[in-house]
Amino acid sequence: RAAMMMEHAPISCTNDASDATLTKRSSAKDVCPSAAVVSPETVTAMAAKIGLNLGNGRGDAMDNTEFSLLWIAVEAACAPLPAGWRQLPSGRYEHAISLEHSDEHPLLHVFKQHAQSERRRLHHQPKRSMYAHWWLFAGANEAVFFYNFHTRQRCRELPAEVSHRRGATGSQQAQSVAPGLNRAPHGSALELFPSPPSLSRQSSRASPQMRNQRSVRLVRANTIANLQHTREVAAEISTLAVHARISRLQLRPRALSDLMDAAKQLRINVTILPQLIWLVDTILCLQTPTAGWERADANRLSELGLSVPKSRLTPIQRMRQRSEKGSYFANHLTLRVTERHPMLDVLHALASQVSLDKDAETNTPSPSTTATPQVLRRGVSKVSNGT
Description:
The protein is an alpha+beta fold. 44% of the residues lie in helices and 9% in strands. Mean pLDDT is 68; it is low at 1-14, 16-34, 167-203 and 363-387.
């Protein structure tokens, strides 16, 4: 929980040199004994070996920089040794059979060739991501932070150039966060997390007085028990997500552009609610279904005594789903069946609840008018902070 609170704390960007102790408080072997923690310094050194131009680190013009090829340096830093090779205490590499020695990683020449190939390909496709120089890391002391390879700075919260890209106020914020998330598919895990009716559905056609009245009814209908349930679910998932994210990011950092693309697919607008970035990173860390859930085909469903649900996926989604092992997700504990990954529904439910709470908090008149209990406001604040 301390690591989670530290992660969401608003800490301003600091220089890499002044924050060098961030990754030196504990040994990497304590966190990951089988592999070293991949740090920004490791990626920068590997980029230099491959021949990538990352600039001088002083934030000058980004002309001719190759931040879009940083993923090759990350893959090279994460690459395992080929069969028969081992790393000596001196840092050199030795082949166990031929006793061949090398000062560089045995696969370094492969990444150099691939970088040249990608450089030629991108020459004909000059479009680049505006966030290519930002990456998400986890230090050896379990601190999650964003790193800017252009300025060599790091910060714990979502970079300002993302969260301040565009602004909105009022109910427009909640409308742009998770549109349509309240419509849960029949039989999906989202039904386990009931949400109050969306306030923003008809806000554009209603007068300000009617919107305020709906806000009052929404806050009163959203009982303390409901907020407590959502708060407990959010706290449990967020706490578990911290360990999953740290173990994943220590071995393989994640590009901010990948997070933004995933947020768009999840319909979570992190430019309005940047505290939900941990939800996006969590879904990218998932490798297997959550407890109680398993992939199942029609035969497995019949063994569990479950019926095949009516498909609610688009033809393209259905084709991708059936190309994998098992077309459905089944829970033998709750006897539920869904076509979507069950964690997607949970994350959508949490994002929807946070957006509705923020909408109610923004559109609610003064406390003297609504007489909203203070504990309710504290509950909304805690859910919005992701803790």
